[in-house]
C-alpha cells in the first residue's frame, strides 16, 4: 500500500476498517482526548492537537489515565492551536461565574509544563495562523462572536502546509457538534481542496 498520504483522525471515528490504513500513513494526527479505542482507530500518533483555549484541558492535564494513554505516549509532538494573544483578542471572555470557579481563559503554560514533563515537544501556533483560519472561513475574528474555527479545522489547515507534498485523508469527521463552530463553512472549504479525501468512517 502506498504511504504518500497523511491520516488526520477526527473524534467521530467509528469505522474499524480504517485501522490499517491509518497506521500505514506517512504521519497520523489526532485531537484532544480521542473517544475511540486503538482497536477502532489505531494507536499510532505523530502529532496530537490539544485545544488550549478550552476548560476541558484542565481536566485532561490532571488525568493520569489520559496522560498515559497510547495517544499521548506515542505522540512525538503536542500542538496547541490557540495563541494567547488570539484568545485575548478574538475569543469570548470567560464569564465571571466561571472565573470564580477557577476557570482560565487558556491553559497554555500548564500544557507546556505537563506535556514537557512527559518528554513531549510542545508547539504553539501563532496569532497570525489563527487569523488565517478565521479568514479562510469568511469569519471576522474582531467581532468576538461565539463562532470560531474548530480544532479539527485548524489542525487540517496546519497539516496542509506542513505536509505540502502529501495527500490528506480524513477519518471520523462529522462536521457537527458544538454550535460555536461553523461546521457548514468548514465542510465547504475542505470539500473544495483537491488534496483532501473526505472521511471513510
How would you characterize the overall build of this protein?
It contains 11 helices and 7 strands. It is an alpha/beta fold and 201 residues long. It has a single domain, classed as sialyltransferase cstii, chain A (Alpha-Beta Complex). A 7-stranded parallel beta sheet has the order 5-4-3-2-1-6-7, with helices on both faces. Helices cover 38% and strands 13% of the residues. The mean pLDDT is 91.
Radius of gyration based on Cα positions = 16 Å
> How can the largest sheet be summarized?
7 strands, parallel
Total DSSP helices: 11
Which CATH C-level class is it? Answer: Alpha Beta
User: What is the count of β-strands?
Assistant: 7
Can you tell me the number of structural domains? 1
Per the CATH scheme, the topology name is: sialyltransferase cstii, chain A
The outline comes out as globular
Helix content: 25-40%
Low-confidence stretches: none
Strand arrangement within the widest β-sheet reads 5-4-3-2-1-6-7
Query: What is the overall pLDDT average?
Result: 91
How far is the N terminus from the C terminus? Answer: 19 Å
Reported CATH architecture: Alpha-Beta Complex
User: How would you classify the helix and strand content by structural class?
Assistant: alpha/beta
Q: What's the order of the H and E elements?
A: EHEHEHHHEHHHEHHEHE
Assigned CATH superfamily: Alpha-2,3-sialyltransferase
Q: What percentage of the residues does DSSP assign to strands (E)?
A: 5-15%
Amino acid at each position: 500500500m502506498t504511504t504518500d498520504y497523511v491520516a488526520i483522525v477526527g473524534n467521530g471515528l467509528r469505522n474499524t476498517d480504517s485501522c490499517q490504513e491509518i497506521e500505514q500513513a506517512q504521519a497520523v494526527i489526532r485531537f484532544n482526548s480521542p473517544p475511540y479505542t486503538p482497536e477502532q482507530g489505531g494507536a499510532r500518533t505523530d502529532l496530537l492537537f490539544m485545544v488550549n483555549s478550552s476548560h476541558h484541558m484542565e481536566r485532561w492535564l490532571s488525568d493520569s489515565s489520559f496522560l498515559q494513554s497510547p495517544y499521548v505516549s506515542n505522540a512525538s509532538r503536542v500542538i496547541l492551536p490557540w495563541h494567547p494573544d488570539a484568545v485575548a483578542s478574538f475569543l469570548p471572555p470567560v464569564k465571571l461565574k466561571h472565573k470564580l470557579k477557577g476557570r482560565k481563559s487558556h491553559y497554555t503554560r500548564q500544557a507546556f509544563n505537563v506535556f514537557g514533563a512527559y518528554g513531549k515537544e510542545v508547539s504553539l501556533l501563532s496569532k497570525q495562523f489563527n487569523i488565517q483560519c478565521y479568514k479562510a472561513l469568511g469569519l471576522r475574528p474582531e467581532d468576538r462572536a461565539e463562532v470560531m474555527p474548530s480544532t479539527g479545522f485548524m489542525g487540517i489547515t496546519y497539516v496542509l502546509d506542513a505536509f505540502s507534498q502529501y495527500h490528506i485523508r480524513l477519518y471520523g469527521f462529522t462536521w457537527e457538534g458544538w454550535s460555536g463552530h461553523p461546521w457548514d463553512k468548514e465542510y465547504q472549504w475542505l470539500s473544495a481542496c483537491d488534496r483532501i479525501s473526505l472521511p471513510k468512517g
